[in-house]
Write a structure and sequence with these properties.
The complex is a heterodimer of chains A (321) and B (288). Chain A is α/β, with parallel strands linked by helices. Helices cover 34% and strands 20% of the residues of chain A. Chain A has eleven helices and 13 strands. In chain A, strand 1 and strand 2 form a beta hairpin. The radius of gyration of chain A is 23 Å and the shape is elongated. By secondary structure, chain B is mainly alpha-helical. Chain B has one domain. Chain B has eleven helices and no strands. Chain B is globular. In chain B, 46% of the residues are buried. Classes of the chains: A alpha/beta (321), B mainly alpha (288). Chains A and B meet through helix 2, helix 3 and helix 4 of A and helix 1, helix 2 and helix 5 of B.
Chain lengths: 321, 288
């Protein structure tokens, strides 16, 4: 349905998104997500490879494609000196809609975005979450068959995020195809049917969130946090090993006693600056065993593994440093 | 291939609405270029309706101050003579000020607002995500500039008429020539502004070394023939000189066929070249 592959700007990716699907590009800043999105949005021409959006070539049918897609850019692009309602109406007109249609459509979208009460205030005075909802509402003015969401909830507080997720889920239920970029694992898990993990402009893994977790992580994770060796120094597990934030698994040197005592308790262990992540099917059992061996972490946490863990495994880096 | 299913013409999509009855105007479509220009103008107009009062001071206030200070004040010391075409200095000055204020208005419209469309307000980036193309954004932007110049010029004319600076209906044509000379300068400046990357500091030398000298020396306040012969050609290449020649000719009924045609062709050439540069610059910047 929408196919794109092999861009010089974006290393090389080959993906096909089905109608009605919510598809995610997951990766850190600079991974090539936004460049990819701009090519799909038919604003930035690709330098190589093949790309079809809604069955058409963006180089030949850019305006026709753009008439049928919705774009939520990374930063809110709104006319801040117009009212909320005017933003929707002016934008709708660019799609060739009549004045009466955009008026009715604006009312409907204001409702959807829970902005009805703000309809006649200047955009300038809206909160970040409201602006984001307005940006999303504006992208829906043409009832897009395909919605491109570039980091839809970056910078929002948790409450605003959840409201947005709920709205996006509703859109998906109505049948709109969504392509989403994010560097938030929980967001990918919430919104995406299928996703690819990007790093340095290439795809390092792909599948459903559950598939990726089962392939690249274990069911549970035991997080052990240790006091830092010296105050102010952003490091290390307990006894002052020099291991950096890079992924370390398996046996360790003897100057890192807690780690050494834990290696056989987990399938894999990640060493982060301030904590250890033990990947295991049963986190509680591992925690009990660790206690029995005299390991005394400052805090401990058993949780289900997430896409964050997948990313860590695949790239050796944490997403949010 | 699922492709085949999506090649069907755009039906009102699955994210359905209450407006299920298909009617003209409720299906997204690609509009014709002239209509696209007008839609971009409509976007500006929506803003202008709310903010026009605030813009009046700069777009009309300054030219009127010039008219009062130079036309009435300084002009009281100037005798009507052959150099002023036999009319009072105030009357001599008014039509030319139409061209000069269009120049200054165009310079204002073509600089920071254009950079902002890419950089701060980002309205061009917003529009580029719709079926409107970069070239159509340019068309709308320049058309909007023409409307602004026309509007400001009309108010200026009304004030000028009220203080007795206007002697006939020919100045209506002067107004149109003024707008044309404003566009002839504005269009290339829009292209320049679209290429500016920084915070707009590049505009300062443009105003200081281009706009201000043009306003003062290119035939508005005194005939270019009074300039030293060596710098006269510099005045001749400025669009505003052609604008003042046309505006005075129209106001005093002294237009002659061939010079008029020459001035017009020169201004239209600037507009055409400027528009071409704008299209290229907008396309490049919006794709980057």
């Amino acid at each position: 349905m929408k196919r794109f592959g092999d861009f010089t700007a974006v290393g090389g990716i080959d993906v096909e998104v089905q109608r009605g699907e919510a598809f995610g590009f997951l990766g850190p800043n600079g991974a090539g997500k936004s460049s990819t999105m701009r090519m799909i949005a038919c604003v930035s021409p690709r330098t190589g490879g093949e790309l079809r959006v809604l069955g058409m070539d963006p180089d030949l049918h850019g305006p026709q494609i753009r008439a049928r897609i919705g774009v939520v850019p990374q930063g809110d692009i709104l006319d801040t000196e117009l009212t909320v309602r005017q933003n929707l109406q002016v934008y709708g007109r660019y799609f060739g809609f009549s004045r009466s249609y955009v008026q009715a459509k604006a009312t409907e979208l204001l409702e959807f975005a829970q902005l009805t009460e703000k309809a006649d205030v200047n955009v300038e005075s809206l909160s970040g979450g409201m602006k984001r909802r307005l940006t999303i509402a504006r992208s829906l003015v043409n009832d897009p068959e395909l919605l491109l969401l570039d980091e839809p909830t970056t910078g929002l507080d948790p409450q605003a995020r959840h409201l947005l997720w709920e709205r996006l889920f509703r859109l998906k239920q109505r049948g709109a195809t969504q392509i989403i970029t994010t560097h938030y694992m929980d967001e990918a898990q919430q919104l995406c049917d299928r996703l690819v993990v990007m790093d340095n402009g290439t795809i390092v893994a792909g599948g459903t969130p559950t598939e990726l977790i089962s392939r690249y992580a274990t069911r549970e994770v035991l997080e052990l946090r240790f006091p830092q060796a010296q105050p102010g120094e952003p490091a290390l597990v307990h006894a002052g090993s020099s291991a950096g934030p890079s992924a370390v698994a398996g046996p360790q040197t003897s100057d890192n006693p807690p780690l050494e005592r834990l290696t056989d308790l987990a399938d894999r262990i990640e060493v982060l600056p301030d904590r250890l992540l033990l990947y295991t099917a049963d986190g509680e059992a591992a925690l009990t065993a660790a206690h029995n061996r005299g390991v005394r972490p400052m805090t401990s946490l058993v949780r289900r593994s997430t896409l964050e863990d997948v990313f860590l495994r695949l790239t050796g880096r944490s997403l949010v440093d | 291939m699922p492709d085949s299913t999506t090649n069907a013409p755009a039906t009102n999509s699955a994210a359905g609405t209450a407006h299920s009855a298909p009617a003209r105007g409720d299906t997204p479509r690609v509009v014709s270029p002239p209509r696209a220009y007008l839609l971009v103008v409509e976007g500006h107009w929506t803003w202008y309706k709310r903010n026009w009062k605030a813009t009046l001071v700069s777009s009309v206030g300054m030219p009127i101050l010039y008219l009062l200070a130079m036309g009435l004040g300084f002009g009281s010391q100037v005798h009507a003579s052959a150099a002023t075409g036999g009319v009072s200095y105030l009357v001599y000055l008014a039509p030319a000020l139409l061209a000069t204020s269009a120049l200054q208005g165009a310079a204002g419209e073509a600089t920071f607002p254009v950079l902002s469309g890419f950089k701060w307000q980002k309205n061009f980036i917003g529009i580029a995500a719709t079926p409107i193309t970069p070239a159509q954004i340019v068309g709308g932007q320049l058309l909007w500039m023409a409307f602004r110049l026309l509007f400001s010029g009309a108010i200026f004319l009304a004030v000028a008429a009220a203080i007795g600076a206007v002697t006939g209906f020919g100045v209506v044509l002067s107004l149109l020539f003024g707008v044309l000379s404003g566009l002839a300068f504005g269009a290339p400046v829009v292209a320049f502004s679209a290429s500016v990357q920084g915070e707009g500091n590049a505009f300062n030398p443009l105003f200081r070394f281009v706009v201000v000298p043009m306003s003062l020396f290119a035939g508005t306040f005194f005939p270019v023939s009074q300039l030293p012969a060596i710098v006269r050609p510099i005045a001749w290449i400025t669009p505003v000189w052609h604008g003042t020649e046309l505006a005075r000719g129209a106001a005093f009924g002294t237009l002659q066929f061939w010079p008029t045609l020459g001035h017009l062709a020169y201004l239209l050439a600037w507009i055409a070249i400027g528009t071409g540069l704008c299209r290229r610059q907008f396309r490049v910047r919006l794709a980057s």
